[in-house]
Write a structure and sequence with these properties.
Blueprint lengths: L9 E4 L2 E2 L4 E14 L10 E15 L7 H9 L5 E6 L8 E15 L7 E24 L3 E2 L3 E2 L8 E23 L6 E5 L7 E7 L6 E22 L1
Antiparallel strand pairs: 1-2, 1-5, 3-4, 4-7, 5-6, 6-7, 7-13, 8-13, 9-13, 10-11, 10-12, 10-13
Length: 236
């Protein structure tokens, strides 16, 4: 494992790559616990409860179309309108991806006479936050294919969550994007199928049950054109 400088991080929000507007980010994972301590306890006792977490972004105010202020204003107007995938090591397939989906809980705009106007946002995720891997870098695709597999060394039993960010779409009729899994890195089956894409969009999907040892991205293109997307997956 290597150390990472903050400048390599990249942030996707809904159907946009907003790294050019963002100066810092914050990601917090936690689990709530209920206390079971009683008169016979030799110490405190707890039972694990729901997943929880928070996410925060700070950047330069920019109200142009598709920029941070406009994107966050739109997200704030919709319940569960914020899907964020943070990649601390950059948008390279196989690297860590932090996934949070939920609501804009607070926004602020700060100004000082010698500085650029700044913007910050806090998000309250639904169903906790997840740490996974980027299966497809934010790159353009024009034909059917699949990504390289990611080896987890073993299967897992807790299901998982995927996040899809489609930032560009032109000319194509549609594209179907899936997360697939495999026991042997040879025979593959569908694990998560995202809604058929016909334009820029974003989506988070959950799956329960066993996730096999290997996972990868898979896509099927209809028509002639190009689409740019990133796909991440986290086991639970």
């Amino acid at each position: 494992m290597s150390r990472v400088h903050s400048k390599t991080g990249r942030v996707l929000v809904n159907a946009y790559h907003l790294s050019g507007d963002i100066k810092s980010w914050r990601y917090e994972h936690r689990r709530n616990y209920g206390e079971l301590t009683n008169l016979l306890s030799t110490g405190e006792e707890w039972i694990p409860g729901q997943l929880a977490g928070s996410v925060g972004l700070t950047g330069n105010f920019n109200s142009g179309a598709g920029n941070i202020s406009t994107v966050l204003d739109t997200a704030a107007a919709t319940a569960a309108g914020l899907l964020i995938t943070i990649c601390p090591e950059g948008l390279t397939a196989g690297t860590i991806a932090l996934i949070a989906d939920g609501n804009v809980s607070a926004r602020s705009v700060d100004s000082a006479v010698k500085d650029a106007v700044a913007l910050s946002v806090d998000g309250t995720p639904n169903d906790g936050v997840d740490m996974g891997v980027l299966l497809h870098a934010l790159t353009a695709e024009t034909a059917d294919s699949n990504g390289s597999s990611v080896d987890n060394a073993a299967s897992s039993a807790g299901g998982g969550v995927s996040s899809l960010h489609v930032t560009a779409f032109s000319g194509l009729t549609n594209i179907v994007i899936k997360v697939q899994h495999s026991t042997d890195n040879s025979s593959w089956s569908d694990l998560i199928t995202h809604a058929t894409v016909t334009g820029t969009t974003w989506e988070r999907k959950l799956v329960t049950g066993t996730v096999n040892r290997y996972v990868r991205a898979w896509w099927d293109v209809t028509g002639t054109g190009s689409t740019t997307f990133a796909l991440a997956f986290a086991r639970r």
